[in-house]
Amino acid sequence: MHIAFIAHDRKKEExxxxxxxxxxxxxxxxxxSTGTTGMRIMEQTELQIHRFMSGPLGGDQQIGAMVxxxxxxxxxxxxxxxxxxxxxxDIIALLRLCDVQGIPVATNVATAELLVRxxxxxxxxxxxxxxxxxxxxx
Length: 138
Fold this sequence. Notes:
Catalyzes the formation of methylglyoxal from dihydroxyacetone phosphate. The chain has 7 helices and 5 strands; from the N terminus they run βααβαβαβαβαα.
């Protein structure tokens, strides 16, 4: 599975704690993140994460490009709904792409926990079919 982590500034600590709690689940998956979020997760865990730019500097768009190509299976995006974001159009575009491609995205810890528990149960097997279909017949 290809999983991306994004967290607004006031949600980064919450993201790190969440990933620590499910570190064993995330091992063995391809992990991606925006810059600072990924750095903070790697400092606190043994996970290896492909880091893109910081969100406001284009990291959200880099992850969005992966979504547009249907290269991600799950996004955990802890948003701060009480703080205006200067790159709000990029955030809205990313969420829209997730809807278009059918990529599950959690924007708070409650939903993230539900999706990770589904991941643990193997409920994302349908994503393997998406990847197989995308590659065409063998």
